[in-house]
UniProtKB/TrEMBL annotation:
Enzyme Commission designation: 3.4.13.21
NCBIfam families, per the entry: PRK05282.1
Superkingdom, taxonomy of origin: Eukaryota
Catalytic activity: Dipeptidase E catalyzes the hydrolysis of dipeptides Asp-|-Xaa. It does not act on peptides with N-terminal Glu, Asn or Gln, nor does it cleave isoaspartyl peptides
PANTHER family given in the database record: ALPHA-ASPARTYL DIPEPTIDASE (PTHR20842:SF0), PROTEASE S51 ALPHA-ASPARTYL DIPEPTIDASE (PTHR20842)
Xref: CDD domains: GAT1_Peptidase_E (cd03146)
Alphabetically ordered keywords of this record: Cytoplasm, Dipeptidase, Hydrolase, Protease, Serine protease
Protein name listed in UniProt: dipeptidase E
GO terms of biological process kind: proteolysis
Length: 239
C-alpha cells in the first residue's frame, strides 16, 4: 500500500481573502499531524522566484513553520532528499514542469512522496504536476517541457480552477467541460477531476477525500460527467 500523504489545492487565493487563507486550517493540520516543522517550497511556476518565496515564507512562518525555497539551494535534488515536506506553488504549469525536469526533480520527488511518504502540498500548477500529466491545465504553453508527463503522485488528472458553464452567457467559446471531453477523445486518457476554487483533495494512502468549499465534477472517458459532494472519498480513482 502506498504511503501517499498529499494535499492538492485547486488554488491559493479566493476572492476576498489573502494568500492561502482559505486553506490555512487544512494546511496547518496537515503539517502538524505529520510532525513537520520545516517546509521546502518550490517556486518554479513563476519567474520572480525571490518575491514568490518571500510571500510563501511570510505565510508559513506566521503559522509557526520554517520554509526554505528550493531555488536558493545549491543542489535541488539534495534539498528534496532531506526535506520534511514539499510545497509546490501555483503559476504556469508548463514553466513549472520544465523546471522540474531541468533540475532532475521528477524521480526525486516521486521517490520521497510515493516510497518514503513525506507530505506533499500542491496548489494550482503544483496540483497539476502532481497528476499523470499537465494535459488538462488551463495555462498557456509559454515554455516547452520535454514531456507533458508529470509526477503521477495520483493516477488521474485534475483540472484546478474548474468553472461551470454559464447557461445565460452568449459567449460561444468552448466550455471547460467541452475541453475536458476533447481530452478524453485521446485513447487511454485518465479520469479528470474538476476542482472548483476553494476546494482540495486530501490523499492519504488509498483514501482521497474532497474537502473545502465546493463539490467536484468528475469526467471519465465514455461516461457522462458526475457531480460529487464534499466529503466524497475518491479512493476508486486510486486503483
Amino acid at each position: 500500500m502506498s504511503p501517499r500523504n498529499i494535499l492538492l489545492l485547486s488554488n491559493s487565493t479566493i476572492h476576498g481573502s489573502g494568500y492561502l487563507e482559505w486553506a490555512a486550517q487544512y494546511i496547518k493540520e496537515f503539517l502538524i499531524s505529520n510532525d513537520v516543522t520545516r517546509v521546502l517550497f518550490v517556486p518554479y511556476a513563476l519567474r520572480k522566484m525571490d518575491d514568490y518565496a518571500e510571500t510563501a515564507h511570510k505565510k508559513f512562518t506566521s503559522w509557526g513553520f520554517e520554509l526554505d525555497s528550493i531555488h536558493s539551494a545549491e543542489n535541488p535534488v539534495a534539498a528534496v532528499n532531506k526535506a520534511e515536506a514539499i510545497f509546490i506553488g501555483g503559476g504556469n504549469s508548463f514553466q513549472l514542469l520544465k523546471s522540474l525536469y531541468d533540475n532532475n526533480l521528477i524521480e526525486a520527488i516521486r521517490k520521497r512522496v510515493l516510497l518514503e511518504g513525506i507530505p506533499y502540498i500542491g496548489s494550482s500548477a503544483g496540483t497539476n504536476v502532481a497528476t499523470v500529466s499537465i494535459s488538462t491545465t488551463n495555462d498557456m504553453p509559454i515554455v516547452y517541457p520535454p514531456s507533458f508527463s508529470a509526477l503521477a503522485l495520483v493516477p488521474f488528472n485534475i483540472n484546478p480552477h474548474y468553472i461551470d458553464a454559464d447557461p445565460s452567457s452568449t459567449h460561444m467559446g468552448e466550455t471547460r467541460e467541452g475541453r475536458i471531453n476533447q481530452y478524453h477523445e485521446i485513447p487511454d486518457a485518465p479520469p479528470v477531476l474538476g476542482l472548483r476554487e476553494g476546494s482540495l483533495l486530501h490523499v492519504t494512502g488509498q483514501s482521497a477525500v474532497l474537502k473545502g468549499l465546493h463539490s467536484a465534477r468528475l469526467f471519465r472517458p465514455g461516461k457522462l460527467p458526475e457531480e460529487f459532494p464534499l466529503g466524497t472519498d475518491f479512493s476508486f480513482l486510486l486503483n
